[in-house]
TrEMBL record:
SUPFAM superfamilies: TPR-like. The keyword Cell membrane does not apply. Belongs to the SusD family. Residues 268-557 form the RagB/SusD domain. It is found in: Cell outer membrane. This is RagB/SusD family nutrient uptake outer membrane protein. GO terms for cellular component: cell outer membrane. InterPro entries: SusD_RagB_dom, TPR-like_helical_dom_sf. Keywords: Cell outer membrane, Membrane, Signal.
Length: 558
């Protein structure tokens, strides 16, 4: 199933030649010209390939980092000075970033580049003869552009609106409320030309129901973006998805499988997902690379064709086990504050976390062999080089709890440090890939469970209940498929927030949620205590001003 999307863009190299050529004083010895490509329906769809390459390029990288590392959901700490990376992760965690932060710069480039690629592709397709394939393809990629502008709207607020490829003149920043209006209009205008089919034929491309889902997300946050609530509009957009009958909730027995390396078009909760293929260039899915490390770099083997979870972990030492290509990078962990939301022992979503003592499949404790000094860098005995064997136990990260000092972002460079921090393995590590550190797990952008939670929240915030559903019934419907604990008898906004934490962790929505629920200025983790409200927006990077001096910087960053 993974090859479906990449088959669609199999002509990518040809498209790239077509869309980026320049006039050269050499003869053209190729049959690939605008007269012959794109012409057929398949070629027109293939011509949109660069858009999807740009979409997936850094979604699981800089975009995810900016949405998660700035919240209590995750921390990428330093270990003995490793992964300091110019303080980019420290600044994101502590809300001390500047307009020169590398992560902020990468986020701006990711979204603005995606917009540019869409503009260029629309310019290629717009002069083709009228056809259903042309109409649908242009609607699809303009919907991707609406997503890109939603990302810009959500993260940077006032941004330039530029929708015409080749147009001369620099675009100044447009007020956030006007960008909101553009995204809303863009989605509504293109929605009728999008497919109403969900499944293999449309997987990885926007459908009408993704457009409605993105509208729901836009309306749910309208109070933040424009100062005017739009909760009934959010509910109406959610109802379009719900009433389609095309989507449903996965039961607890298959919840975790939604995120396996074998996920794809068969996932009935995926309204829109980004397909990843570890062997394909142009965007990498790297979640597990940053979730595991050293002794936690666990190799998961499969039973037959279906991932079996913790079936046969093999300790990933630095060499000698055939896993050199899959060596994890700096490990992300969650905070005590975020993990506190996982307080129901009967909830299947607890299985996404590695915490406590770790065992082999047969129940035998995993033992790690090192030295006494290797285990504890502060060991003072004369026998520090002696062998030391200990059971692998993952300890939670304690707020401001580094052994290097309460203000330290460095946890140390020993086994105690490496085993600190509860890890998330929602996107099951894909060690069937022996070529590189990338993964085959597709990443959902919006799932059906998010639709139910958005509708429930909108009702609690003052919207009108519809389709016979209440906020309580919607939340209990979701929980019935996630936990065997008793249904809730009442639901509050705090309950909705906690449910969103449990359901959508590691899915790039937590920053958005924390801001909407007024929790972004809180205190957590390794020294996050900055309460500046202007940091609900990122600064426009210095690099953006170097190419467009008509931009206006966001307040607080001058």
């Amino acid at each position: 199933m993974k090859k479906i999307f990449f088959g669609i863009v199999s002509l990518l190299s040809a498209v790239t030649i077509f869309t980026s050529c320049h006039k050269l004083d050499v003869p053209v010895n190729t049959e690939l010209t605008p007269d012959v490509f794109p012409k057929t329906q398949a070629q027109i769809v293939a011509a949109s390939g660069p858009v999807y390459i740009a979409l997936r390029s850094d979604f699981a990288g800089s975009y995810w980092f900016s949405q998660s590392l700035t919240t209590d959901e995750s921390v990428l700490a330093v270990f003995g000075g490793n992964w300091l990376d110019g303080n980019r992760y420290l600044e994101l965690h502590r809300h001390t970033w500047t307009k020169d932060n590398a992560g902020v710069n990468a986020l701006w480039y990711y979204a603005s580049n995606l917009i540019g690629v869409v503009n260029q592709t629309v310019a290629v397709l717009k002069d083709l003869p009228a056809s259903q394939a042309k109409t649908t393809t242009i609607a699809e990629i303009k919907t991707v552009r609406a997503l890109a502008y939603y990302i810009m709207l959500d993260n940077f607020g006032n941004v330039p609106l530029d929708t015409l490829y080749g147009e001369k003149g620099l675009k100044p920043t447009t007020p956030r409320a006007k960008v909101f209006e553009f995204v809303e209009k863009e989605l509504k205008t293109n929605l009728p030309n999008l497919s109403t089919t969900s499944g293999i034929t449309t997987y990885g491309r926007p459908t009408q129901y993704f457009a409605y889902a993105l509208l729901a997300k836009l309306y749910l946050n309208a109070q933040v973006y424009t100062g005017t609530p739009r909760y009934n509009d959010c509910i109406a957009a959610c109802d379009q998805v719900i009433s389609s009958g095309l989507y449903g909730l996965e039961p607890a027995s298959t919840y975790m499988q939604m995120f396996y390396p074998t996920n794809g078009p068969g996932q009935k909760e995926f309204i829109f997902a980004i397909p990843y293929d570890a062997s394909t260039n142009g965007g990498n899915m790297i979640y597990a690379r940053y979730d595991l490390n050293r002794n936690l770099g666990i190799r998961y083997l499969y039973s037959g064709s279906t991932p079996g979870g913790f079936t046969d972990p093999v300790m990933n030492q630095s060499s000698g086990n055939g896993l050199v290509n899959n060596m994890p990078s700096g490990p992300r962990m969650t905070t005590a504050q975020f993990y506190a939301n996982f307080n129901d022992p009967n909830d299947v979503r607890n299985k996404q976390w590695l915490t406590g003592q770790q065992y082999w499949q047969d129940g035998t404790p995993i033992m790690v062999k090192t030295t006494k000094s290797g285990y504890d860098q502060f060991y003072t005995g004369s026998d520090g080089g002696s062998t030391y064997v200990y059971p692998l136990v993952i300890q939670p990260l304690v707020d401001n709890g580094s052994r290097l000092g309460a203000s330290a972002f460095d946890l140390g460079n020993d086994e105690i440090a490496w085993n600190t921090g509860i890890r998330n393995i929602k996107y099951l590590p894909d060690y069937t890939n022996t070529i590189n550190r990338n993964q085959n797990n597709d990443v959902p952008v919006i799932r059906y469970s998010d639709i139910l939670l958005m509708k429930a929240e909108a009702i609690l915030r003052g919207g009108t209940a519809t389709l016979g559903a209440t906020a309580l019934s919607l939340v209990n419907n979701l929980r019935a498929n996630r936990t065997t604990s008793a249904a809730l008898s009442a639901v509050t906004l705090d309950d909705i927030y906690a449910e969103r934490c449990r359901e959508l962790s590691w899915e790039a929505w937590h920053r958005n949620d924390m801001i909407r629920f007024g929790k972004y200025e809180g205190t957590w983790g390794l020294g996050k205590n900055n309460a500046d409200t202007y940091r609900r927006l990122f600064p426009i990077p210095t690099s953006a001003f170097q190419t467009n001096n008509t931009l206006t910087q966001n307040p607080g960053y001058n």
